[in-house]
């Protein structure tokens, strides 16, 4: 089984692409076989259409908080909701979500999905730092157009399965130290040291998910990449491997709200 981890960006370029780690599970070891960066959405569309079987953990939110959706009067079934979101521009999303936040008290501006709390993830309606709402806006339509199965949310090709992942959840289980920054001036020795500790923790399986990493020839690249796009893709790959171990038990997912979705491993 091909197991992929996808570090997504809503605005890919040759400088910062959509990064994909691919590997296979051997026992309890995720053996990394390739790392690629795709420079645009067209290349990602093609990649999504590669024949299965494969399972991928994608680092972008697959849905919005029920509280927000019901407040806005948007569809409360997942697929109609995603089609509605797809009719809006990024500017529309920002204006709508900002108005929602502006009307709420300090400390409770954003609505959260239930999965955000155990995962420690940003609210999926957030449009800055990081702009995960834009990632949803760009990424979910690509999954739908490619005809993949979005587990428990949308039936598609059963040999190509997409789960929502979050690399920060795994990284923080190893160290709480900052390990990445897109600005070269902020790619410090301390952050490199944190990446090295994360890689060492993955290799030893010293984290809640207990899947070990065999990085092979990619090990130095995971540590040297100051943006940590490569490492984030691998962290998602670890979650994909953990889910594959539990493929006969809902990929390890609990019962969850089929409008909001759930981050695998949370």
Structure overview:
There is one protein chain. The model has no long low-confidence stretch (mean pLDDT 97). The protein has helices at 41-48, 66-72, 78-87, 90-102, 116-119, 132-146, 167-174, 189-204, 219-224, 229-245, and strands at 2-7, 18-26, 29-38, 54-58, 148-150, 157-164, 212-214. The longest helix has 17 residues, at 229-245. By secondary structure, the protein is α/β, with parallel strands linked by helices. It has two domains: 2-59 and 165-245, no CATH class; 66-141, no CATH class. 42% of the residues are buried. The chain has a seven-stranded mixed β-sheet.
Summarize the structure.
By secondary structure, the chain is an alpha/beta fold.
| Structural class by SSE content | alpha/beta
What ranges have pLDDT less than 50 throughout 5 or more consecutive residues?
Answer: none
Q: Kindly report the spatial arrangement of strands forming the biggest sheet.
A: 5-6-4-1-2-3-7
Inertia-based shape: globular
Number of helices: 10
Q: Oligomeric state of the chains? A: single chain
Ends apart, CA distance between termini: 23 Å
Radius of gyration using CA atoms only: 18 Å
Question: Which bin fits the share of residues in helices?
Answer: 25-40%
What is the arithmetic mean of pLDDT? 97
